[in-house]
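User: Hello! I'm new to structural biology and keep hearing that structure can be predicted from sequence alone. Could you demonstrate with Guanine nucleotide-binding protein-like 1? Please show me the input and the output so I can see what each looks like.

Assistant: Of course. The first part below is the input, the amino acid sequence of Guanine nucleotide-binding protein-like 1. The second part is the output, the predicted structure written as tokens.
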Amino acid sequence: MPQGRRKTPFSGKAKKEQLKAKKQLKSFDFEGDQKKALLVEQQQNDEASSSIRKINFQPVKDNARSNKYVLQFHNESKEELKERREFARQSLLHVTEKELEVVGENYFLKELDFPKRPQWSFNMSRDQLEQKEQKYFKEYISSIEEKFSWKELSFFELNLETWRQLWRVLEMSDIVLFIVDIRFAGLMFPPSLYDYVINVLKKNMILILNKIDLSPVPLVAAWKDYFTEKYPKLHVLMFTTMPGYNLLGKQNDKAGLQIRRRKGRLRMAAEGTQLLLEACKEIVGNNVDLSTWQEKIKEETMLESEEDESTEVGETINVTQDVGYFEHEHYKGGVLTIGCLGQPNVGKSSVMNAIMGKKVVSVSKTPGHTKHFQTIFLTNNVRLCDCPGLIFPSKVPKPLQVLMGSFPIAQLKEPFTTIRYLAERLDLVKLLRIDHPEGDDEWSAMDICDGWAKKRGYLTAKAARLDSYRAANSLLRMALDGKICLSLMPPNYVTRKDYWQNHPSTDVIKWILARRTEESDNTAGSDISDEDVEPKPAAGSGDTEHKKLQTESESDNDQIDLAGANKFAVLNTED
Ligand SMILES: Nc1nc2c(ncn2[C@@H]2O[C@H](COP(=O)(O)OP(=O)(O)OP(=O)(O)O)[C@@H](O)[C@H]2O)c(=O)[nH]1
């Protein structure tokens, strides 16, 4: 036998697999599904053996660069996932309304600070700066690992590149605009960021409570008051990027969603924007002349909705390239720079569009859509800067993070504990009008999913069993959109409901919502009648309306999102 490299035994099946893989690699130069699948598979294999999970990974050839800003989270272990799946099969427990009250500091612990940019100077080379930041970030992660186990922590951003985006936006901004989704406001606002912006950077900070169309008006008033009291230097504003949502009146009419849709061009959220302008005026004083911005709002308010919807994505965008060094000077050149920060999916891009009165940055239902910060001039001396969504380290439970939109639903390995979280706080059985799949009266999260799968006819392709996974995904998407609407509450809200019901700021809230018709203040999150849930279709019209609804809601970039607040329409929509 000739001397040389010893061959390892190779089965016929393994040989076949090898040849198949080679064939696939040969077709690498061709664009198409095969190449995409190969790259995603390659990424998944890498991931399985790594402690870091990369999310929204793009299957492109030049992946090193394109995927610089992908979300990176700690990978959950197999045991963790197994434990959670078993938990989802156990009977649901009832959670009282009082337990929806949250105190942010219990989740954003002091020991869980966010990464700050290490000291730098103009004498450092780009490489030196890069290395210093990498070393710092590694040490930062190790220090967290020493104090906490990954299991008890939330998903939070582990991609240094994304934190760098935050550092740059913080450096270049005169005012930091932090945006939260009102439904989860208490668990989206990191006190450590407030402390850093106000006390270390000595900058001003505005908190935008966005998506107020999704929460009851008294609850919005209570959240505003909570933040104003707790963070005295914070300017707190309420906002919706979908004002005039209820322009067409009744909401539980036979036509369901369609009647709640505001028709016409995408317009500026003028009421909310006016309040933002006033807050900015108070902050900048005489340093920047904001009269052009005021003019813009005035013009917009006077405009009739006859104009065309103008979509001008990228028109005035100046995607700022890597800014390694940036020395901040307040109101440099008489320009006010406002940096928009917040967790993924809170509506940062939508807020920018709503302030502009036209679509200038792209919006998506998929969390983590904005990858690189971008700047845009609102007027000749007001500049907005949109930062990618950032998840700060905390102890917010993972199922809740999914509902908050911090984690892309499509990438979830185990959606059922999130359904459990939801079903213990909202009466999903009643809301969805589902029957127990086994005729029982003890419900588990899995039963809810199976009940929904049965109702919607979701079956697996191979064995034609109920597709619980698809049902769970469908329910989570509805929760993200606000069709199934869960809102957390500030401390002591439940015992003081009457007080908030008649609070003076409820009038301002209704004005921001631009509601023209008299409506109940508790539209979101209240009880649902049978009539609301399953409206009888008008003779001969149901089918067409239903189809229209499907096509319109499919668009990922649909700024005037018809789904929005209408939890009454859960049975009218397709996912
Ligand atoms: N109901 C309601 N939905 C909103 C509002 N603002 C934004 N949305 C929806 O929230 C989703 C996320 O909006 P984006 O503007 O893409 O959010 P983002 O914070 O830029 O997201 P990332 O790119 O993940 O950082 C989209 O489906 C929007 O239509 C609002 O005021 N009310």
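User: So the tokens describe the shape?

Assistant: Right, they're a compact way of writing down the 3D structure. Reading them back into a model, for example: The first helix runs from residue 12 to 26.
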